[in-house]
Amino acid sequence: MPDKKDHVYGDHISARFNDELTELKTQFLNMGGMVESQVERAIEALTNNDSQLAEDVRQNDKKVDRMEMDLDEEAILVIARRQPAARDLRLVISVIKMVADLERVGDEAKKIAKMAIKLSEEGQAPQGYVEIRHIGQHVLSMLHDALDAFARLDSDQALRVMKEDKQVDQEYQAAARALLTFMMEDARNISRCMMVMWVLRALERIGDHACNIAEHVIFMAKGEDVRHSPMEDAERVVGR
Predict the structure, then answer these.
(1) What CA–CA distance (Å, rounded) separates 83 from 86?
(2) Which of 27, 65, 152, 222 is surrounded by the most beta carbons within 10 Å?
(3) Would you list the domain boundaries of the chain?
(4) Within the chain, which residues score under 50 in pLDDT?
(5) Measured between alpha carbons, how far is 46 from 174 in angstroms, rounded to an integer?
(6) PhoU domain: from which residue to which, for each copy (predicted)?
(7) What's the pLDDT score for residue 2?
């Protein structure tokens, strides 16, 4: 359940305003679900050598872009019609920023799908698929938890997502070092290993975007911006 100290949205005299905010949140979560699926399917396409599934992911990116444009338009209309203040303005502005993060996650999924197609044409990569599965599941969990934190306005869960980002960075660096060593041992592996490296980098970026969403959830819940701040500051904001 959300932190009992967190603000609650959607409690206004105007029922229509309540409906508009609810619809905005619903559309955002729908886009989040679509993006989650894109990432999951891209990883599956790569690890299963499924070029057709990868192509489906590439084509679906257009739907993600369309969702971003629709959500931006709806958020702007809410601001124009209602001129929200305080907590409601934080919600609408945060949604606009988080939508941009979701769209970029979709872009990273498309990149992974492109690499899946190339690797399928060249044959399976000699190394790195275990790391892709592991880091992929980690960042998917972060993304899911960040979206769930938004749905429940749970700043404690958002903080947990932020703390996971450092571990993903460490996992990415370890996997990159292992691949570099493998490439040095046999130059014939360089092309395929570089593509695996790009996939790992895309996954690491997805973790960054999940962390960004979590930071916005804390801003909505607590009214304080924790971006670019030490983790201790975020802990203080959430714990107060």
Answers:
(1) 10
(2) 222
(3) 15-239
(4) 1-5, 7
(5) 20
(6) 29-115, 132-217
(7) 40
In angstroms, rounded to a whole number, what is the distance separating the alpha carbons of residues 200 and 205? 9
Tokens of 158: 């958002």
Query: What is the amino acid identity at position 32?
Result: G
**pLDDT at residue 234, rounded to an integer:** 94
Helix or strand or coil: residue 199?
helix
What's the token pair of residue 30?
Answer: 């729908």
Question: What pLDDT does 45 receive?
Answer: 95
Closest to 144 in 3D by CA, of 75, 86, 214, 191:
214
Residues 45/54, Cβ–Cβ less than 8 Å? yes
- Output the pLDDT for position 126: 61
Fold that domain 15-239 belongs to in CATH: Methane Monooxygenase Hydroxylase; Chain G, domain 1 (1.20.58)
61 alpha-carbon distance from chain centroid: 14
CA 74 from centre of chain: 21
